[in-house]
Amino acid sequence: MDILGDRKFVEVPGTATHELPPLLVRMAADVKRLDRVMGMASELIDQEDLIPFRPVAEEPALDLERRRMDMALNLVEQYLGFVRDWRWGDSILEWIRQCETTFEGRMELRNLLRADVWPHAARASFVTLLEDKSVDTGGVDIEKAVGMRLTFREPPPLKCFSNQFLFYLNSSVANVAYTTWARMSPNPISALPPERFSFEVLNTSLQ
Question: Which of 61, 160, 192, 207 lies deepest, with the highest CB count within 10 Å?
Fold first, then answer.
């Protein structure tokens, strides 16, 4: 086991670079019916009284509607960001499963499947590998994305969320989910040396 600073890296036999399955990500946060999402955002604004009632004399109806529309657009933007993060997390977990199959099929990698390297309950070593390889996510935080996928099996519609979740809570919820998941690995947790593995990241939204 190699130790670099406070990081411990598993020793991979030989000197060859191992090709892992491609990470397939639907990077676009598009939704089938954006008009329905806008409708849900408007309903959320009304249900949670996000725009306090004001007499017409104080605020013209047109200005009130403009504020309502701006807030609805903001909620939709936050929701599309949530969907984008969830899709990255879903893709990463599927990629990890494919990597597990790859390791099992190669004699020189099979013995690396020890409890302190890649426990079945928590495969955070592969998330760390993505970070070490500086994968271009377009601004998506990888750990947050995985945490979001661990929290939600499917991305719920916008109407299931509170405005507090979309504006303030989603990051903390996802980060706690990821941290809890990663800590299920028994110590010491050994990282996979990034120079020994290669893979492609493909945007399936372009297909």
Answer: 192
Q: What is the pTM of this model?
A: 0.82
Packed helices 124-132 and 142-151: angle between N→C axes, nearest 10 degrees: 150
Low-confidence ranges of the chain (pLDDT < 70): 1-6, 29-32, 34, 47-64, 113-122, 185-189, 206-207
The C-alpha atoms of residue 159 and residue 47 are separated, in whole angstroms, by: 10
CB-CB contact of 206 with 140 (8 Å): no
Give the tokens for residue 79: 């929701």
Beta-bridge partners for 7: 4
Residue 130: φ, ψ to 5°: -60, -40
Phi, psi of 203 (to 5 degrees): -90, 105
Q: Would you list the domain boundaries of the chain?
A: 2-31+86-206
